[in-house]
Amino acid sequence: MAKLAKLDDIVSLCKRRGFIFQSSEIYGGLASCYDYGPLGVELKRNIRNAWWKHVVQMRDDVVGLDCSILMHPMAWKASGHADKFADLVTVCRKCGTRSRVDHLQDHQGSVEEHTEHIDIEAVQSKAAELSRKVCPACGTVGQFGEPMAFRLMFETRMGANVEDTMTLFLRPETAQGIFVNFRNVLDSTRVKIPFGIAQIGKSFRNEVTTKAFIFRTREFEQAELEFFCKPGTDEEWFEHWKQERFNWYINLGIRKENLRFREHAKDELAHYAKACVDIEYKFPFGSGDWQELEGIANRTDFDLRQHQRGIRTMNEWYDKKGDLTKITLKEEAEDYLKGPLAYFDEETRERYIPYVIEPSAGIDRSMLAFLVDAYDEEEVRGEQRNLLRFHPALAPIKAGIFPLVKKDGMPEIAMNIYQDLKRYFPVFYDEKGAIGRRYRRQDEAGTPFCVTVDGQTKEDNTVTIRHRDSMEQVRVPLDQVKSYLRDKLDL
Ligand code: GAP
Questions:
Q1: What is the CATH number of the domain that holds 473?
Q2: pTM exceeding 0.70
Q3: Mutation choice for ligand 1 from 222, 280, 293, 368, CB with most ligand atoms inside 8 A
Q4: What range does the domain containing 450 cover?
């Protein structure tokens, strides 16, 4: 039975073994920004690859995309982010601390489920609730100022000349790059609805409160799928992707008792969603433990429709000064099915704007969940053994290769094994120190196997292969090491 990990244990192991470092640490660090070290970068890449394999490679109905982080400002206007992607914040009059309204606890002690990115229009309705909330910094009850909307998108400037620079946003989600390329993908591939477009990439949000190591940061990586389907089939696809994504975590070793679904209430839905369910993980921090790991939303035809309106505003109705609200519903209804983002079904001869089901995962947040779930401590012969019980697909190093001692031809044989295996998967050669310590170092890195060349190797051409989780050792003929490991690693 794995030990319940504490966040502090994970943070310390991550630093000690080179998974995750504080950004700009030698300058005192930059809050909520992190760097991935030699083991972390491999783990993160394996998570990305596992997601891509599951969502793109193994399916016949999903293609990939990699869009720029900077996009035309009109895209954010049309998507609603420029006006609505904000958190509701309030300042404690007693101590001056700024907090997210949805993160404040009730005086009675109950915790309000967190709501991501409240619509600016909802500002007033929240004001009354503040009288019974507690400041997380100083504990004062009900002394908050008026709630204000705080825009979450980072701004930057593009252009070298003062007269033609323009203000752009760093993308707060990768999804919009997919929507604006919908027509390009339709025209350049043979996809037919239902189909999906997947993307993994960096997103940026000027979060009011950052949290718990890499759980909520201002720069992070998302893995998003926009799955386009015919209106009316959306609920079926929503269910499909809920199960697919839940099983992805389980199949990569997350324990089922640490994972659950949570349906969003109507008043916490994002501005684009008809329904949303979170996959939550029981993280070892926060008052409620259960925290969002991934969101699966039914975005309806909201985004494609909005971009259709956005392009028309730019191209045809620019005289209306770019104000989308001046386009009448009648104009839109007459015209939108002729636009480039409408889909024409050649079999049924129907034209419609597709609905979208969106599973949206955080790569960094998943990494934290995989680290927490894999972390274990146990006592072996009076000594503490720390280990990461990673699924082999996620393990940064697949096998450690050791000579038992640094003599008698053992290093040469071990080096040959290492040179051969590294062509197929990441392996690590180590000849320094006692063998027990070398095993412990690989346990802490989450390496599933260690291959040791010993005195018997020269006699019968066999080596030992040690299994990380059980510490069991088996003897395997030298010429079968590669196939043994590939079989166990499923590579
Ligand atoms: N396109 C939909 C969307 O962006 P979201 O629920 O805001 O939805 C999806 O984000 C996922 O991205 C979250 O479930 C989480 O895993 C990750 N994520 C969002 N904000 C994050 C942050 N500030 N730091 C780390 N991960 C974040």
A1: 3.40.50.800
A2: yes
A3: 222
A4: 397-489
